[in-house]
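Complex record, two chains
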Amino acid sequence: MNAALMRAVAAVLVSSLLVAGASSARAQQPATVVVTGQILDYEKGYLFFTTGDGFHVAASAPIVDLKTQVASAAPPAVREYARVTFDSTGTVTKIELSNAKLASEGDLSQIHRFAVALTPPVPNPDLAPANVPKGRCSGVVPGKRVIVQFTVQVPPTTGPGDSVYMTTDQSAWNPQAYRFDRVDALHYRATLSLLSGTVFQFLFDRGSSQSLERGENGIEAKPTSFCVSDADAQAVPHTVYHWGDESAGSGSLPVPQALPTPYNPAPFPNLPTNPTGVPTPRP
Amino acid sequence: MTALALLCAPARAQTIVHLAAQHLAFYYDRFLIEGDGGVRVTLGNGVSIRGDAFSMDLKLNRFLVAGHVHVDSPSGSQDGAAIADFLDFDRAYFVPILGQAALRQAQGDGGLRQAQGDVPDRWTFVGSDFAHPIKGRVMPGDTFYFPDVSGERAFLTTGMATIGARSFVRFGASRVDIAGVYAPLPSYYINFSTDPHLGANSLAGANFDGTYQFAGNANAISALHLRYDTVNKAYLGFEQHVSGSKAYAVFSVNPFTRPSKFWNLRLSDQPSDTFQIQSFSQLHTFQSGLSQPLEAQHVTNVLATQALHRSFLQLGYQFVNDSLLAPTPKNYYGDLNHVFVPNHPSNATLGITGFDTKIKGTPLIFRPRFGFGFAHDAYGLQIVGKTLYTTIWNHYAGLTVYTPAVRLNHPARAFQSVFLNAIVDKQRTWNSAPHFVDSTNTTLSLSRQLDPFSHLTSYLQYNILNTRDVYSKDQAAVYPSIPIGTSPGLQQFEQFAGAATLRTLSLGVLYTNRADFSASLVAEKHTDFPAPVPGLFPLPPTNVLGQYQYSAYFGKPPYDLTADVRFRLDPHTAIDIARTYYFNYPGLRWSPQFIIQVTQ
């Protein structure tokens, strides 16, 4: 009896250990992997995510609508979102489709090992850090709304009633694209909401392309290139030295601007003609 | 990886992408073109691509074709899942799906020997060499990503487009979002190049300008302008732009559908980094359609600039013809509104302007200028004494001294800092007439934020403009004392002898929210000599927006309050509404009209 009991106990223990071992093995390597992503293509037995990775799809893999779990009438299409189940060999065993963007599930980089490619990957020298040129937008996370406050210092000859605008390549160089507000005798300001990662060029003017800013050397200024960073807010200072419609020698004199404009040597543009009717040599 | 694409390397010369699809949508605020169904892309190098979906970021200058892709190139054809062309970098990234024939070839090359059936791969094409793909090369991480445009409204939908890399996109028959309604248009052109000269315009201002660019390429734009202003009401204008690497030209006729037409031509050439010459010519005609004009005037301005060491030399020349039509016996054309004016004055100025120079040990910066010039009119410019001057020579010297922003205090909360700006500008102009004109313009301002988030800012500004026109012995003859009344204002006018002082105290408050709304309120008090007298001083002419054409003039009402509200309807459309109240200055309570301006 004792020997039989001991054999039975031993058998139970061995069985328990075997079961426990098997469970442990299953826990270490789950049978299925689930990820969500956007579809790049589905053809010839492969499903491609927008990572560029293509995965073998089992012939028996059901393709269903994510919400209803009803078999999809159409095959997976580019731009659709999918919740995809992989078996342990990396074969797609289920595709659940959605037109709406899906919450992130799983890790697409983890399934990269399942991707099928004829040629083993080789390093790309273009992507070596030494070969990636560092621009102002390097490392910026794109697509985030950022508040950007532009402050421009205008030439001291800018009239008190002048309007100041910013023109950009984003607005097809419309000279009145963004109007700025005066904040003191020499500065104008505007706050814009822009997407991070946007690179654009800008110039300042007084409402017409004739007035586009000039450099300190009097030559038409080249556009300033600007990258919207991914910080929550950004301040951009800028200095305008001269306006394109400043005339030589005018300084800040009030100059009549009507066209055609005969030269008027008198400094008081709206002095009345003699109200008494007596002729005077007043210009 | 994004960084790789964001860098602005020069595009391949004249890269043109011809695109067709069942549905193409353009998102203006993100410069994205998204296409679906029957996508066909043709490149200038003989490569054509078919697929299910298309996506292009015009600013990043890269496109993606995905879904059942078929690539035809001079070196052969290949099916695949997707291809992305990074035009700036001469790299095309392709995910081919290789059939058995290709696999046998690949196995011969030492590829995946156990492959059966179709197998994907990763190829990179360098330059336009589609015959020799680099196989297996790792690709940038976001190569095949689609931008998320869910919830965004397309500015335009179409079925065909031609894209000039980093330059322009020309859409075929399109439906364009105009004030929230999609309107059909036969074509639509958008320029997004970094060349500002294609955007240079030669049109006068307008309250509203709807621009329809119906044709164009990398160097030219043809545009119709549907405009509205308070003088001409609704009308059409036409504008033609041409731009090269160093020169540009803009021609316009506006308003094309009104009798009073302005024909403008702007030219600019910059043969070197230190020299530029520009001209603006305007022909004004009063004519119905293109019939014989009742008026024709002309003005040409030429401006040549030569950069020098820490200064620049500028020559300005203006030539005016007040009547280009032959004189008639009656001296008018049609009726007395169109009289013959024989004058054809001209003037020129050659001046040097110095760079800004900081005065050591002070926050002051100065900028000197001097030059000389002449004005000429064969019919006479001015009579002084008994002499009629047909040519007046002048020379001038001026100096601007200013300080950009001096912090006056250092409070615990930084936003409460008060800043001082000061500008003094003085110029004397000597004329051969003989008289000289002194002008001194002094501005002081204090400014500070009113809240820590920069929503509210305010400034207090005081401006004094002194102008003296000094004729010496002829002073009393040129500026005679004219007794016209006993009121204080009229007495001041009687005392006016060529020296005026205009003082303006301004208080401005500006509110800005998070980028789509701003409002400003500016109160001004004017203390002028001579004082304003209702009805005595003619108001300055207004431009088509209803704004006075110069800000310093006699007869300003003593008090005014200007409110300006501006809001942005979408990333490309803003409305600006302003009006001034004059506190019951006799005969004037409000500015002539609201100034409403729609900018796009």
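Note: The CA atoms of residues 37 and 121 of chain A lie 22 Å apart.
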